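Hello K.,

You asked for the raw outputs rather than the summary table, so here they are, unedited. I folded two proteins back to back in the same session to keep the settings identical. This is the first:
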Amino acid sequence: MMGLRAREVFHMFRSLVLSLTLLGAPGVAHEAPKQAAPTKEAEKAEAFFGHEELVRQFKLHETGCKKGNPMECFNLGLAYAQGVGVARDEARAATFFKKACDKDYLDACNNLGIAYAQGVGVKKDPKQALTLFEKSCKADDAKGCFNAGQAYASGLGVEKDPARAVTAFEKACGRGHADGCFSLGIAYANGNGVNKDPARAATLLSQACDAGNMASCNSVGVSYMAGNGVTRDMKRAVALFEKACDANVAGGCLNLGIAHKQGNGVTKNPERSRELIQKACGLGLAPACQALGTAPKAP
């Protein structure tokens, strides 16, 4: 039962963090004051390429954008968003994302949508964010569909509409978006916006896991441990929990620790169980800390 609770808690945390956090679109700016310090990405780039090379690349992007190349306007927006080769300036980043989006460069539309959703470099405007995500989705962009789905699921710029969220997640998943498949799988698992279907949920969560969404690996592991929508297979569940835990998914570590404690799909190992539950607690999962009798670490 604790493993199932861990999954629920983890899913709740994911839903609270609006996954508009630039899934698949590199370099989106996070909320910060003007002239903020360069991002970690910018620091890594400078360490690798050197400042002079980054300035040279920035000037090339600037020239290309002036010539009307939307990809170069997008790259220029990323440079300003991260502070790569230029002082970080989120307002200018948004300006160049808009230039690129106006010419239907869809990654720029997604980044601009996130800026409006978060109020980064522009005045916060959830409705405009949704409009931009829908524009990308209508052009068959997976990230745009996923972000539109998140907006409908959370009520960003629109009344919550689980059915429309499912439609958008379906489209994103069909285009290989791992987080879209995860969100769609959770919708089928919970019957949210669609008829509850544990077997369909397990299939989608497996697909998301294979595509790199590690939270899905934990979730489908719970399905295999419980035999929910799939034939019960505790060894497979353990392998999935281990994959999730290796990627620092707290719920995966807790569920793997419980498996080691109870001997489900693996030989009982109380010492290993405690190590795994401690890791889950260190990652901030309250039920894991409660199992240890300690308080979770601050994020």
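The second followed immediately with the same parameters:
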Amino acid sequence: MYVVLAGDTVLPVGGAPRRPAVLADAVRELEAAESPRWVWADTREAYPPLIERGVRVGRCHDIALTERLLLAYEGRHDEPRSARAAHARLHGLPVPDERPSEPGTLFAPEPPSAELVAEVLDDQLRRIAALPEPGRFRLLVAAESAGALVAAEMSHEGMPWRKDVHDALLTELLGPRPVHGMRPAKLQALADEVAAAFGHPVNPDSAQQLIKAFKGAGISLKTTRSWELKQIDHPAVAPLLAYKELARLHSAHGWAWADQWVHKGRFRPEYVVGGVVSGRWATNGGGALQIPKAMRRAVLADDGWVLVVADAAQLEPRVLAAMAGDGRLAEAAGEIDLYSALAKSFGGERAHAKIAMLSAMYGGTSGDASRLLAVMRQRFPKAYQFVEDAAKAGEEAGSYAPGSAAPARRRPRGGRSWSQGPRARGRPATAAASPATSWCRARQPSGRSRCSPCCAGGCPSRPGWCSSSTTR
């Protein structure tokens, strides 16, 4: 049973619309009696007001997320995916250049009508039914929409965060909190060491000044990235590397971050489902998916509660093993820690196995990556060739689906070529998708369950606090 919720209107599909006096109460009663699949333009806009009133729903159909999946399947990644945009395409009208508005946006447009949402739903269901394997795609839609419910509930509940513990950790690592505009004591001490090593003042936050200072010392650098600095011999390198690590912590998750994002003992970022092309979640500010390990000690359960961690670790390499049909890699994928299982092939070093795998999937060529990629190519030729073939197809604006004529990863129309992305810049990028991941996501099994099974394993139907990394 589908029930459209738009603004203050409730519209059972095939029935008559009504405007209940108290919308939250009407939704609560219908959820308890019928457990329908709620249909709305965007979960981020429709669901939070219900959560605020104590209403939770079991399942939904998110129009914007579903449109995104359908457009991606059709190779139209860059087209607007809002309900209004989908409706305009359906009727051959000019498509508004918009994305779903951010929750709480000042002067946000009126939500689309229930009738418009119902019409777009009918079109989406028709397009899904016309696919070669509609059942699999329905499950993907259901899983993506379930993720939107989870994301909204997680944002509402917030993650417990002890500001006193956070402050103590920062003080231990950086020194006492400085006045605004000044560096913490330990950062300043490292900056002074860098300047002393060069014999003149140098701003360690300025790549231009650092490159110039190294050039004056007879060392030519293209960048000041850590992997390049580690290859040179100069007394400024050690304090500079230490400075860069602590400065990153201070700017991304320091005291100012806590002032902005942590309130009443809760860290409440906005989680964005399918926020990157690979299908991974993202966050709209707050860096919730990249909290440094040292700072995680500030995440403490409330009295009487425990934290349950659901970690889909190393998922993408496991997917690659299954898709490429690489038996040796699949054997390692059956272990709890895939990288440890692969370590024998890389001189017993787990870190080397991880670098090789991520470099193969994300196009890394810096540091030791080139040498380790040669080992990867030799030991796991099917997996390596699979990624190379997919990358080549993407660069040529084609698609790649092994053993099938179905569309997989396509180069976005009107967008940048893959050669302009992280692969060309010579480093892994976690926000970029591997060809394997994109193909898997586009072709994952689908249906009406709240969660879709992963290609190599399973996942909980209602995840708890999940790690952002699926490649650790």
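The CA atoms of residues 158 and 268 lie 4 Å apart.

Happy to rerun anything if the numbers look odd on your end.

Regards,
P.
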